[in-house]
Amino acid sequence: MKKVLSAFLAVATIAGSLATAMPAAKADGGRVAAGVGLGLLGGAIIGGAIANSSRPAYGYGYAPGPVYIEEPACRLVRERFWDGYGWRVRRVQVCD
After folding, report:
1. CB atoms within 10 A of CB 44
2. Rounded to whole angstroms, how far apart are CA atoms 83 and 41?
3. Handedness of CA 24, 27, 29, 32 (dihedral sign)
4. Are 61 and 69 in contact (CB under 8 A)?
5. pLDDT band for position 84 (50/70/90)?
6. Does the pLDDT at position 17 exceed 80?
7. Residue 60: what pLDDT?
8. Residue 55 Cα distances to 6, 50, 68, 72, angstroms
9. According to the 3-state scheme, what is the secondary structure of 58-81?
10. What are the C-alpha distances in Å from 90 to residues 18, 85, 87?
11. Rounded Cα gap, residues 4 and 37, in angstroms
12. Number of H helices and number of E strands within the chain?
């Protein structure tokens, strides 16, 4: 309901500013400004009603289940070893 009220107030503010600016260009009568203002107001009301509908945006309430990722059976482990000249590090595959 807050969305509809805020949309209504925004459109009313814009329509009020248009109504105060229109008398300078009023050659055919003031009915054009009233029609524009009422069209904006009606569009805001209808748009607010559509935006506030209870339908989900997509999926119709369906959410996929959780995804479980299994760890691989083998992993790479860093291992220190002596190569005869000094300590070095190599990666070794360890499987459980």
Report:
1. 20
2. 83
3. negative
4. no
5. very high
6. no
7. 62
8. 21, 10, 30, 41
9. CHHHCCCCCCCCCCCCEEEEEEEE
10. 75, 15, 10
11. 17
12. 2, 2
Question: How many of the other CB atoms lie within 10 Å of CB of 15?
Answer: 19
Beta strands in the chain (DSSP E): 74-82, 87-95
What's the residue count for the chain? Answer: 96
| Cβ-contact 83, 65 below 8 angstroms | no
Sequence-separated (6 or more) residues with CB below 8 Å from residue 22: 30, 32, 33
Helix (H, G, I), strand (E, B) or coil at 88: strand
Whether the predicted model's global pTM rises above the 0.85 cut: no
Q: Is the pLDDT of residue 41 over 70?
A: yes
Q: What pLDDT score does 20 carry?
A: 60
